Amino acid sequence: MSSLSPLAPGVHFLPGAVNSLVLEDGRGGALLVDTGLDDGHARKLLRGIAELGLTPTGILNTHSHADHHGGNAFILKKFPELKVFAPPLEDAIITHPILEPIGLFGARPPKVLQSKFLLAPPSPARLAPEPGLTRIGGVSLELIEVAGHASLMYAVRVGGVLYAADALFGPEALAKHPLVFCQDSALQKEAAARLGELEGVAVTLPGHGDPTGDLPGLVAANLSALERVTDAVRAAVRAGEAGVDDLLARVCDALGVQMTNAGAVVLNRAVVSAHLTELLERGEVGLRVVGNRLVFFPEA
């Protein structure tokens, strides 16, 4: 019996804090979609496909966050001939992962921001094919652009199975992390809504959470969570002009979030910044420099 769970004939996943998708090529090979946070996850993934008599034919990373490509290096040590594919921009970060914490911190990050959660080992990623029907590692699949959570991200569809990556989160993940991570909150909402319009999806696997047959319900839960954050950021600005860090503290208080480490602060700071940009573009808030500080204020 394999440690992988079946989703459809030839389609499996490794459950975990981050899910990995396994797509059979029908000839004893398998494309690995997202490899998890670290060597431990990657080891389980290789064990799972071996239990099914499969050998990896390639790696597809849906985006560049460390918990989705942190297992690449371990797998490439075992199978150095494998090619790693990723969307544009994301391929550069997977190849040069220091770009991730640099982007969050705004400069060379201190050691506390170089943990495995923010800085994965490098792996030589190349551009994945453009969105649409394609073949990777001998497997036919559909790539769907779902930017928002990351600068660019792909969901993967095979028949009636949709791997939404982090365009959609499971209910438990949404409850655990009220500040749903995104780099562009407007695009994240648009991506979730577009996935909800897909027809013929029998089962949806989020990047974090259990598979579900209720795609519309999952989309609705994610859109509600994202709007809740937008509402909290809007309310924080209306409470009085402030910089991002003060607004972050107000939002955390409103949503019951308690940050205890530097990584959580820079990640959640990015979330608040994303929603501020959305509100700026809507004309609901403005920004200006006051006393050498960049502050946001409510527009009349």
UniProtKB/TrEMBL annotation:
SMART domains, from UniProt? Lactamase_B
Which ranges form a coiled coil?
Answer: none
The UniProt entry, under InterPro entries, shows: Metallo-B-lactamas, NDM-1-like, RibonucZ/Hydroxyglut_hydro
Q: Its domain of life?
A: Bacteria
Q: Which stretches make up the Metallo-beta-lactamase domain?
A: 17-208
Check the record and name the Pfam families matching this protein.
Answer: Lactamase_B (PF00753)
Q: What is this protein called?
A: Beta-lactamase-like protein
Tell me which species this is from.
Deinococcus grandis
